[in-house]
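#lab-general

N.A. 3:47 PM
ok so I finally got the sequence cleaned up, no stray characters, all 489 residues accounted for. can someone with queue access submit it? mine expired

B.Y. 3:52 PM
send it over

N.A. 3:53 PM
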Amino acid sequence: MNAHNVLLPIIIPLTGAGVAMLLRGLPRAQRWWTLGTLIASLAACVALLSHVISTGKSLNFQLGGWVAPFGISLVADALSVIMIVMVQFVMVTGCIYALGANDVAKRYSVFMPIFLTLTVGLTGVMLTGDTFNLFVFMELLVISAAALTAMSDDRSGTEAAFKYFYISQLATIFLLAANGLIYMSYGTLNMADLAQRIRADAQAGAGMPPMFTMAMVCFFATFMIKSAAFPFHFWQPDFHAAAPTAVSAMLSSVVVKSGVYGFIRMTTHLFAPFAPQLQQVLIVIGAIGVIYGGFSAYGTHHAKRMFAYSTLAQIGFMLVSIGWGGPLGIAAAIVFMVNHALVKSAMLMLSGYLASKAPVKSASFEVIKGLGKSLPYAGVLFFLGSMALAGLPPLNGFISKMLVFRLGIEQAQWGILATIGVASMLTLVYTMRTFQWVWFVPPEAKTKAKSGGDALLAPTILVLTCLALGIFGDPLVNIAMQAGAWVYR
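B.Y. 4:20 PM
back already:
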């Protein structure tokens, strides 16, 4: 495979966005073009994954022919290719959901083009080989996500979009500052070159440049905000309650993974000599997030807000895995990221489906109480998704949590294991409580499901994928193990 193939997952959706803008007067053609573009881009990602995993070699492409560490670098390695396949698969299902939804958002002629630019931003974050273009792709991601949120038919949509935009801008300010400080310190922004120079300085024992510590702190703050980790999670619940379902499903499942991905790169590559200190912080933050997110999810009475807080808890599991470190720790985090992306997007889509069937479009428990009596198929999907989120067999979430628990047992981290064990049981409590409230509690006399509503094709695809990865989980685990070993070589 030629190194130019690394460009395809970015070029295909970027070009597709331009064509989609030209098709804005033909909404039906524009929507199907967008879906076709995303499927083609996903195929390019799968081809990259197959090549990198089978050969054990990364693909590096230098735009403009500049020799590294100069110019723009794109790198498809064992970690990034898994991430872009995860991102683009979920984005395909998000587009399918949008096509079958009754949201006002999809009627905007710019919704589909911006959906494609969101894909470009996410994919670029995973593939970039230098920290400045990490900033560029994150800016594209933020602008796209904020614009999509503002198209909501919820009256709070604009407010949520501004919250997300300004909080995310804080992250990009930290990232821009980190770029400036690191360039002042080392005169390079290429990640591979930067990692070598930092390692050389650390091994020499002569002390780090004056601005180095501040640069590392700024990177850390950036990824904290982007992953919506505790205590930078406060924008998430309002955002998810107000954003169009197709958008909230993407941001809670794959956009927050950009921050988790950043922590993996920090601890295994960029700042590897200082990984022990960073990992201890991640373990503490992750453990707090697991408990806080779980109890907050239990305490809310709105399905979308509940799953927003649930994401905070699930991110905590990933941070703890990264904090424990080693190839198995990274592999556990990767498997958790992929499985969480699938199940969380499915559960948010099902919440949106219930809201679309309610007399008043809302995912509030009071509105959707008893609504599921006439929606048995959605109940099956919700039940399976709840099992996956709680980590019960034979769903994929079981494999995710078993890897984390195996890692904790190997490292004898009994206190943290007890903490995340309680959080796992709490996940089952609040998801099953919601399931009973919607499908088993008698509905109010005025509560009757609408005849219309959003389509269930996208969450069906996602839940079936969760089931498949639960029964046949070895391929994903093996690929994740290979990626975990690769980042530490």
